[in-house]
Amino acid sequence: MPLTQADVDREIAAAHAAYEKRVADGAPVEHHPRRDYAPYRSSVLRHPKRPLVAIDTSRDPELVELHSPAFGERDLAEADNDLTRQHTGEPIGERITVSGRLLDRHGRPVRGQLIEIWQANSAGRYAHRREQHDAPLDPNFTGAGRALTDAEGRYHFTTVQPGPYPWRNHVGAWRPAHIHFSVFGSAFTQRLVTQMYFPNDPLFPYDPILQSVTDDAARQRLVATYDHSLSVPEFSLGYHWDIVLDGPAATWTEEGR
């Protein structure tokens, strides 16, 4: 019998109740989801199936970097942070401005760091050859951008409001609208990946990926706030979202720590 949304709802409720009991009994707050979070069925497919490869950094501290992509500031183009003008025509959908700061655990800005984003278009479809959703593609929107944080740790993107989309975790599974964020440190091996959501999305309670962050405060840190000061008159609505790299207010990342 296929797994339904009602089945997943019960599993999410049970996982949250179990977490609250653990905390009440003295267990530490869990800012990141457990890898065996049952409602997120396809997470099993993301687990490593082979032993980790050990690298002897004592022999050569830079050995890891020799097998990782390289990136320089000169690789950024002028329009990389504006996903609405990367093609000859205008993309379809509501234009939005997303901005915030990259911060360390003490609230200090992290400067000169690469932030990449990728997202579905306004119809909820990714411009990817393995995409299976039959919503229309937008020839003027490929859904990827990047920027460097400035002296205040601030980033800035112009894009379109992504649409929700179905996925095959269970019958009736829909993902809330979201934007994927990738943050690089000084090396590729320091990469963190997370997701930003939009306020008041009715799909929040039904999404096992978001609900796998069982701590409510940590989950709320993934939701942007509407910021009218970021809105561009007659052009876009503005959203503010800070990314905190570490500490008790850290932003959830997909691989945890």
UniProtKB/TrEMBL annotation:
Its EC number is 1.13.11.3. Residues 98-126 form the Intradiol ring-cleavage dioxygenases domain. It is an enzyme of class 1 (oxidoreductase). GO terms for molecular function: ferric iron binding; protocatechuate 3,4-dioxygenase activity. Pfam families: Dioxygenase_C (PF00775), PCDO_beta_N (PF12391). InterPro entries: Intradiol_dOase_C (IPR000627), Intradiol_dOase_core (IPR015889), Intradiol_RC_Dioxygenase (IPR050770), PCDO_beta_N (IPR024756), Protocat_dOase_b (IPR012785). One of its GO terms (biological process) is 3,4-dihydroxybenzoate catabolic process. The keyword Oxidoreductase applies. Keywords: Dioxygenase, Oxidoreductase. Belongs to the intradiol ring-cleavage dioxygenase family. PANTHER family: DIOXYGENASE, PUTATIVE (AFU_ORTHOLOGUE AFUA_2G02910)-RELATED (PTHR33711), INTRADIOL RING-CLEAVAGE DIOXYGENASES DOMAIN-CONTAINING PROTEIN (PTHR33711:SF10). This is Protocatechuate 3,4-dioxygenase subunit beta.
